[in-house]
C-alpha cells in the first residue's frame, strides 16, 4: 500500500510561452515527487499545460486537470486574468477530497492561491496547504527597482502589490507552509517562520542534462565563442532588458564587433527591438526568443563568454545560474537577494549604474584570466549546491514531516 501523500497543484497563473521562476519550480518538483511515489493532480489552463508539455512533464501518476477558459482570453490580458481568478474560485468550491491531500498554490497570484485557500477552509482536517510566495511585490511608490532607475514601472508594481494585499493575510492565517525564494523573504512571514513553517527554496538547474550535453560536445567548447555575452530571462520590467541595450551600446563603443545574445520573450519585446534600432545595434544584438532547455540553448551558452543579469528587482534568479553552470562568469546589479544566490561567480555593480555595468563586462572581456577564474568559481558553486534533486528532497522532507 502506498502511504505517500497525494498532491494538488494549482498553476493557473502559468501563461505564455516562457517560463517564470515559479513555473520552473512547480514543474521540477512535480517531475521528481511523482517519481518518488506521490500522485499529483495539476490544475491549469491550456497555456499552462502547453508549458508543462514543452518541458516534457509526463508521468502515469500525474493527472492534468485542464480548465477550459472559453472565449475569455480573446478579450485581452486583464479580462483573461480575472476569468482565471473566477475559474480558480470555482475549482476551490467544486473539488471533493475523499482523503488527506497536500495542496500547493504554485504562485501567490489569486488564481492559484484562492482555490488552495478554499479547499483548506472546506476540508481543514484533510488538507495541508503549501503556499508559494516567490517574490514580494515592491512598493508602488518605488516600483521595480532597488536603486536608481529612470523608469520604475510603478503601475505594474501597483497591480502586483494590490494582489498581495489580498493573498498575504490568507497565507498568514491559513497556510501550513510557505515557500520563499531567499532568506530576506522570510521576514515577510516572521510568525510562520518562528514555528518552522517557512521553507527557503534557493534556485537550481538541470545539472544532469547540462553535464551530459557538455560531455557530448567537447569540440564545441574548444571553438572561438560567437557571443561576447548572453542574457536569459523574461522581457519584464524587473529584468532591466531595455537598460541592457543602453549598457551594450556602451560596450560596443569600446568593442565594435561585440555581440550580445538575448534569450527570452515578454511584454517589453517591442521596447527592446525599438531600442536596438535607435542605437543602431542590429549587428550587435541577436534575439532568439524563448528557448526551452536543450541543445539550442545550451549551444548558445557554450559559445558565450559572459552572462549578464541586469535585473533591478529580483527575489533570486535562476536564469544566470544555468549559464554559470557552463563556466560563464556573471555581471549583475548588487541586489539584496544575490547575497544568498550568488556569493561567487558574479561581479556586482551598484544598482542603476549602467556605466559601471558596461565597465564590468569589458573588464571580463579584456581579461581572459579573470574571466576563466570567476567562471570556474561560479560553475563549481552551481555544481555543488544547485541540483533540482537536492531542492526537491529538501522541500518535500519539510512539508511532509
Automatic annotation (TrEMBL):
GO molecular function: glycosyltransferase activity
Entry superkingdom: Bacteria
Pfam families: Glycos_transf_1
Name assigned to this protein: Glycosyl transferase family 1 domain-containing protein
Segments forming domain Glycosyl transferase family: 221-380
Residues in coiled coil: none
